[in-house]
C-alpha cells in the first residue's frame, strides 16, 4: 500500500493531552502553515462572546515567529485587562 498523497498537505496540530493537567497558557504550540507560509497559533479554549467583543481573536498569523509572539502578547494584555474589569462595556459600544 502506497502512502497517501495528501499526507504532506495536512497542517500539524497539537494533540490533546492523554491524562493529567491541561497545558498552561492561552495559546497552543505555533506552527508554520504549509498553505499560507505564515506562522500560526490558536487559542486552547473557545473564546466567549465578551472576549470576542473586546477584540480578542482565536487565531493569530504572522510572517515571523517574533511577530507572532508580539501579537500574542498584545492579545494577552487585552485578555488580562478584560479579566480585571469583569463588567466593562464591550469595545463596540464606545464612541470613537
Brief digest:
Residues 1-21 are annotated as: Disordered. This protein has 96 residues and is an alpha+beta fold.
The whole-number mean of residue pLDDT values reads 83
Shape: globular
Going by helix content, strand content and strand pairing, the class is alpha+beta
Task: Quote the beta fraction.
Answer: 5-15%
Query: What order do the strands of the largest sheet run in, or round the barrel if closed?
Result: 1-2-3
Q: What is the strand tally?
A: 3
Profile the largest sheet: 3 strands, antiparallel
Region (Disordered): 1-21
What does this protein structure show overall?
Residues 1-21 are annotated as: Disordered. The chain has a domain at 26-85. The chain has 96 residues and is an alpha+beta fold. Strand 1 and strand 2 (39-42) form a beta hairpin. The termini are far apart. Strands 1-2-3 form a 3-stranded antiparallel sheet, with helices on one face. The chain has 2 helices and 3 strands, in the order ββαβα. 26% of the residues lie in helices and 10% in strands.
Properties at a glance:
96 residues, alpha+beta, globular
Write the topology of this structure.
Blueprint: E1 31-32, E2 39-42, H1 49-53, E3 59-62, H2 65-84
Antiparallel strand pairs: 1-2, 2-3
Amino acid at each position: 500500500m502506497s502512502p497517501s498523497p495528501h499526507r504532506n498537505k495536512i497542517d500539524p496540530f497539537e494533540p490533546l493531552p492523554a491524562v493529567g493537567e491541561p497545558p498552561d497558557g492561552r495559546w497552543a504550540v505555533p506552527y508554520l502553515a504549509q498553505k499560507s507560509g505564515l506562522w500560526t497559533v490558536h487559542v486552547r479554549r473557545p473564546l466567549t462572546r465578551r472576549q470576542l467583543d473586546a477584540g480578542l481573536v482565536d487565531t493569530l498569523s504572522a510572517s515571523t515567529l517574533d511577530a507572532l509572539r508580539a501579537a500574542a502578547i498584545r492579545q494577552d494584555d487585552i485578555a488580562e485587562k478584560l479579566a480585571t474589569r469583569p463588567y466593562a462595556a464591550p469595545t463596540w459600544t464606545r464612541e470613537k
